Amino acid sequence: MQTAVDAGDAAALLAAVPAGRRVALVDPRFVGHVHALRLGLTDPRFPAATVPGALTAQPEARGALLRALHRTAAAVGAGAPVVDPDTDPAPEDRTVPGRIAVALEAEGTAVQRPALGSLVAAVPTDPGQEAAAVAGLTSVDDEAVRLRGAVKAHDGFFTTYCISPYSRYIARWCARRGLTPNQVTTASLITALIAAGSAATGTRGGYVAAGILLLVSFVLDCTDGQLARYSLQYSTMGAWLDATFDRAKEYAYYAGLAIGAVRGGDDVWVLALGAMVLQACRHVVDFSFNEANHDAVANTSPTAALSDKLDSVGWTVWVRRMIVLPIGERWAMIAVLTALTTPRTVFYALLIGCSLAACYTTAGRLLRSLTRRAGRTERAAQALADLADSGPLAQAVASAAPGLRGAFTAPAVALLGTLVMVGGALFLPYGSWLTVAAAAVYVLLSGLAVARPLTGALDWLVPPFFRAAEYVTILVLAARSDVPHAVPAAFGLVSAVAYHHYDTVYRIRGGTGAPPQWLVRTIGGPEGRTALVAVLAAVLTHTSGFTTALTALAVAVALVVLVESIRFWVSSSAPAVHDEGELA
Question: Most exposed residue of 248, 312, 375, 433, measured as fewest CB within 10 angstroms of its CB?
Answer without folding.
Answer: 312
